[in-house]
Amino acid sequence: MTDKKPFAWETAIAWKNKDRIVVRGYDVNELTGNISFAEHFHLVLKGELPTPEVGRMTDAIMVNMAEHAMSPSSATVRFATSGGAELNSAVAAGVAGIGRLHGTADRPAELFLKVAARAEAEGIADTEAAAKVVAEMRAVKERMPGFHHAQHIRDPRTVRLMELSDKLGVTGRYVTIARAMEDATEAVFGRRIWINGPGAMGCIGLDMGYEPAQLKALFIVCRSLSLCAHSIEEMTREKGWRASSNSHMVQPLDLSMQGPDNYDGPSDRTLG
């Protein structure tokens, strides 16, 4: 048998010993106090420090997407906390609630990449490919990730993110594709379907050089701040279980909402 070296995690991300911690070649103490967390995010995930423009845009996205009041992930973290879960477990439950329909910056990014690939494959302009893809998705009633928001209709986060992307010179091919798709919705849907926050994050992120999975990571990192806050507030402000009839409002697990009036299964029956 060929001799093998002892097991070790092989990684290009970081190393440490008794005296030092080195991240992507930089001593962590040199980084500390000299770069922002957004710049550090870029370094850890992509291996290099970002340009000033990309660093600032990354920071802007993190601020913009960190908090969104009650959403699937924040509601999940609150329910987990109300059941007595520790902070880390409750936040993990909230992160698990970030799925295909919530916090999906990676999915619109994949859609914009698909449009770009379509344009190259067919030798057509990005705007034409964008219009084709919108029409085809509409024809089969396929959801367009990154467009429309059920609560906002026109997502207020998008305008600011796109404005900053233009101002910082980040805007490139993928923001242009996203805008072309939004323009195309008017003819296809008979109304404008606006780019939402995750959609803006997706196209801007691609223009900054992030990959779809890295954009998913960016959303998870910034939204985890919110999930921590919601969990801590739930454990310090509310009673456990969210079912107390003594509360000033009806609680989501109150027995009044679990009786026969809200049941539509089989009527009472017996085994005999």
Automatic annotation (TrEMBL):
GO cellular component: cytosol
A single GO molecular function term of this UniProt record: citrate synthase activity
Pathway field: Carbohydrate metabolism; tricarboxylic acid cycle
InterPro entries per record: Citrate_synth-like_lrg_a-sub (IPR016142), Citrate_synth-like_sm_a-sub (IPR016143), Citrate_synthase (IPR002020), Citrate_synthase_sf (IPR036969)
A family per Pfam: Citrate_synt
Keywords, ordered alphabetically: Acyltransferase, Transferase
GO biological process, any: tricarboxylic acid cycle
EC id: 2.3.3.16
Residue segments, region Disordered: 252-272
PANTHER family cross-referenced by the UniProt entry: CITRATE SYNTHASE, CITRATE SYNTHASE, PEROXISOMAL
Family the UniProt entry places it in: Belongs to the citrate synthase family.
UniProt-recorded name of the protein: citrate synthase (unknown stereospecificity)
